[in-house]
């Protein structure tokens, strides 16, 4: 656990028949992929006029995300580099058309055809140089410029990503901005290490304010959060005795604080009542 | 692969100026029934390159589309049915797509075109 697939092998080799089958039959994985796709569709904010839209699914894999698109009533075309994943998509009889292709080579699609694009856990693969002639910067540039071309004006593209660090965030978003997109990164469940999800949110040709992330309470406003969240290092160096005294006091206040913390992470927490933090009766 | 997708694909080889439309070499064509949606068809009609579309449908063995079409024809149900059939129901299952400029063949297997480029084509 913990190792990133893109650090192991190139996508077309990592997703061999065996991995592709496991990937698509794991119910937890299906659930995560589905909820991320639903969130990405929500961020796409397609006009709700009842007319089906044509979407592009980059790195469609076995079609898990495509099924969500079909369910919401839209048509889609999927692109992936791993033949084994596409084979599984065929077995599952997905509705969209599938293409075997490498997004880093540019998309080769005509101008203004698509009403939106999504990519679930896809574009971080572009940050790696898997072959000697690969250059991540050039591949990202080719990808984003060709993507910009094939979207209609005002269309959005949402990519769920797992960036390793700020450098990778920059590596991913700067070629997108250079290609003409506006937008940024939306972080859902910022405070929860497990539920935290990042979406690269891009708009074609228009300036649109970034959508609000999920899993955030009002007091936690975005603008100053980076500076407010500095850790107070000094507090940690209190004398040993005081520290020990504080530890034994896990009273009502402490419980409330912890519950608040968990709520901010988006966990299910029972509500605060008059019973919260009360001592049990001494029965003996 | 449906003709809808074919009408969007162009050859992406380095140096190719006009890689559209790709010529279809059909070996096996299958038909799958899809529910018709008039609004979607009308929207796609504006985006479709009609000449390439008619040529592609002939390549797949479907000859009932008119040479020229304009948006007034969309009111006719018969035309809509044909357009729908060619656009969404015909699938190229086995065959190839050929780049109009270089003649490079992109094989289509099990309905999936292989658009991967070689190292020297990027």
From TrEMBL, chain A:
Protein name: Methyltransferase WBSCR22
GO cellular component, one term: nucleolus
CDD domains from the UniProt entry: AdoMet_MTases
Location within or outside the cell: Cytoplasm; Nucleus
Domain Methyltransferase type: 56-133
Species, as recorded: Medicago truncatula (Barrel medic)
Keywords: Cytoplasm, Methyltransferase, Nucleus, S-adenosyl-L-methionine, Transferase
Any Pfam family: WBS_methylT
Keyword Chloroplast: no
UniProt-listed Enzyme Commission number(s): 2.1.1.11
Principal localisation: cytoplasm
18S rRNA (guanine(1575)-N(7))-methyltransferase Bud23 C-terminal domain mapped to chain residues: 202-282
KW Methyltransferase (keyword) present: yes
GO molecular function list: magnesium protoporphyrin IX methyltransferase activity; rRNA (guanine) methyltransferase activity
Gene Ontology biological process terms in this record: rRNA (guanine-N7)-methylation
Segments of this protein annotated with the region Disordered: 212-284
Family under the similarity heading: Belongs to the class I-like SAM-binding methyltransferase superfamily. BUD23/WBSCR22 family.
Automatic annotation (TrEMBL), chain B:
Listed GO MF terms: protein heterodimerization activity; tRNA methyltransferase activator activity
Top-level taxon of the source organism: Eukaryota
Entry's Gene Ontology BP terms: maturation of LSU-rRNA; maturation of SSU-rRNA; positive regulation of rRNA processing
Transmembrane residue ranges: none
SUPFAM superfamilies for this protein: Trm112p-like
GO CC annotations, alphabetized: cytoplasm; nucleus; tRNA (m2G10) methyltransferase complex
Similarity comment text for this entry: Belongs to the TRM112 family.
Assembly and interaction partners: Interacts with TRM9.
Protein name: Trm112p-like protein
Native species: Medicago truncatula
Taxonomic lineage: Eukaryota, Viridiplantae, Streptophyta, Embryophyta, Tracheophyta
Gene: 11426594
């Amino acid at each position: 656990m913990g190792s990133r697939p893109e650090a192991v092998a190139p996508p077309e080799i990592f997703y061999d028949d065996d991995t592709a089958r496991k990937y698509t039959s794991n119910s937890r994985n299906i659930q995560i992929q589905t909820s991320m796709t639903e969130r990405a569709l929500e961020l796409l904010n397609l006009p709700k006029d009842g007319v089906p839209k044509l979407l592009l699914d980059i790195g469609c894999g076995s079609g898990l995300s495509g099924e969500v698109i079909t369910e919401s009533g839209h048509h889609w075309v999927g692109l992936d580099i791993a033949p084994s994943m596409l084979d599984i998509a065929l077995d599952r009889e997905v509705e969209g058309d599938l293409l075997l292709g490498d997004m880093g080579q540019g998309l080769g699609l005509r101008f203004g055809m698509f009403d939106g694009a999504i990519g679930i856990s896809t574009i971080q693969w572009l940050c790696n140089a898997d072959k000697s002639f690969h250059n991540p910067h050039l591949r990202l540039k080719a990808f984003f410029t060709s993507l910009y071309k094939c979207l209609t004006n005002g269309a959005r593209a949402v990519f769920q990503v797992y960036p390793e660090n700020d450098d990778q965030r920059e590596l991913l978003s700067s070629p997108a901005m250079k290609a003409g997109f506006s937008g940024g990164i939306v972080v859902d469940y910022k405070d929860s290490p497990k539920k935290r999800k990042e979406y690269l949110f891009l708009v074609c040709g228009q300036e649109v304010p970034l959508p609000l992330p999920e899993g955030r309470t009002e007091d936690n406003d975005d603008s100053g959060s980076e500076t407010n969240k500095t850790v107070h290092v000094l507090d940690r160096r209190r004398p040993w005795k005081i520290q020990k005294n504080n530890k034994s006091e896990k009273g009502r206040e402490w419980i409330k604080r912890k519950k608040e913390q968990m709520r901010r992470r988006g966990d299910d927490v029972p509500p605060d009542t008059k019973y919260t933090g009360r001592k049990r009766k001494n029965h003996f | 692969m449906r003709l809808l997708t074919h009408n969007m694909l162009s050859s992406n080889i380095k140096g190719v100026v006009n890689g559209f439309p790709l010529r279809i070499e059909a070996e096996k064509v299958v038909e799958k029934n899809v529910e018709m949606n008039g609004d979607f068809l009308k929207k796609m009609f504006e985006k479709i390159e009609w000449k390439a579309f008619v040529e592609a449908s002939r390549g797949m063995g479907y000859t009932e589309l008119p040479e020229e079409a304009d948006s007034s024809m969309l009111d006719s149900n018969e035309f809509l049915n044909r357009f729908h059939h060619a656009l969404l129901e015909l699938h190229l299952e086995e065959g190839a797509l050929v780049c109009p400029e270089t003649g490079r063949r992109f094989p289509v297997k099990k309905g999936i075109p292989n658009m991967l480029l070689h190292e020297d084509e990027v």
